[in-house]
Structure formats: structure tokens, C-alpha cells
């Protein structure tokens, strides 16, 4: 069954314009054509979902461009997985840093509240 760009947009939550943009940037392999229509594969859809989700996590298109590589028409999911592990670690580090800042704020707030009670 042929999957055209409108259906891909529905399945991925991306706009047609965004899908074409990702094609232009070589983040996805240009789909084969059936007449004048692009025909997308499940692989296209999975990579587009990955791009959408990664962007939501703060990953840049430049970073994605460096990691989404193709071999014989298929994305290198092993390399993508390794990259996602790095992104997860980066987010965990950010979470730790934020937790430390919150702890410092709690100390400041506690100090201020103590001063107000003794005043």
C-alpha cells in the first residue's frame, strides 16, 4: 500500500512542509515516486517520528544530521540508539544540575524564613 505525504503527516504529526524540509536536508532518504507522488515507507515514518521526538527533547537538526546515517537504504538504528543514550545522559545531567539549584534555593528560602521569625 502506497503511503503519500498527507498520510505521513498525519502519522508523524509533522507538517507537509516540515517533511519536505527534512528531505531537502537529507535527514530522510528521498522517497521513490509513483508518478508525481512521493511514496513513503515505514522506515521514512519511523525516522520522521524520531526527528520530531528528538526536536522536542532539544536535539538540534545539526546533531540529527550528524547521526542519522543510511546504509543500503536503511537508517543505522544502532548509531541512532547510541546517540539517544548520550542525549539521555545529557538530560540526566541537566536534571541533576537543576535539582542542585533547587536545593540551594530551598536553603536560601529557609534562611530568609528563619530571619523573619527572629525579627
Notable traits:
single chain; mainly alpha; 8% strand; two-stranded antiparallel sheet; 119 residues
Give the SSE map.
Layout: H1 5-12, H2 16-24, E1 32-34, E2 37-39, H3 42-56, H4 61-67, E3 70-71, E4 74-75, H5 77-118
What would a concise description of this structure say?
This protein is mostly helical and 119 residues long.
- Please mark out the parts with pLDDT under 50 across 5 or more consecutive residues, or reply none: none
Q: Which structural category do the helix and sheet elements fall into?
A: mainly alpha
Q: What would you call the shape?
A: elongated
How do the helices and strands follow one another from N- to C-terminus? HHEEHHEEH
* Number of separate structural domains: 1
CATH level 1 class label: Mainly Alpha
Task: Please indicate the percent range of residues in DSSP E strands (runs of 2 or more).
Answer: 5-15%
- Intertermini distance: 76 Å
What is the helix fraction of residues, given as a range? Answer: 55-70%
CATH architecture: Orthogonal Bundle
Strand arrangement, major sheet? 1-2
Which topology does CATH recognise? Multidrug-efflux Transporter Regulator, Chain: A, Domain 2
Amino acid at each position: 500500500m502506497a503511503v503519500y505525504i498527507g498520510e505521513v503527516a498525519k502519522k508523524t504529526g509533522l507538517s507537509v512542509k516540515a517533511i519536505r524540509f527534512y528531505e531537502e536536508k537529507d535527514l530522510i532518504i528521498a522517497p521513490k515516486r509513483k508518478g508525481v507522488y512521493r511514496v513513503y515507507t515505514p522506515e521514512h515514518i519511523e525516522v520522521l517520528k524520531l526527528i520530531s521526538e528528538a526536536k522536542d527533547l532539544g536535539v538540534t537538526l545539526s546533531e540529527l544530521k550528524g547521526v542519522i546515517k543510511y546504509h543500503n537504504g536503511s537508517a543505522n538504528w544502532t548509531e541512532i540508539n547510541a546517540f539517544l543514550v548520550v542525549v539521555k545522559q545529557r538530560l540526566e545531567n541537566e536534571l541533576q544540575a537543576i535539582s542542585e539549584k533547587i536545593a540551594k534555593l530551598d536553603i536560601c528560602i529557609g534562611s530568609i524564613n528563619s530571619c523573619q521569625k527572629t525579627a
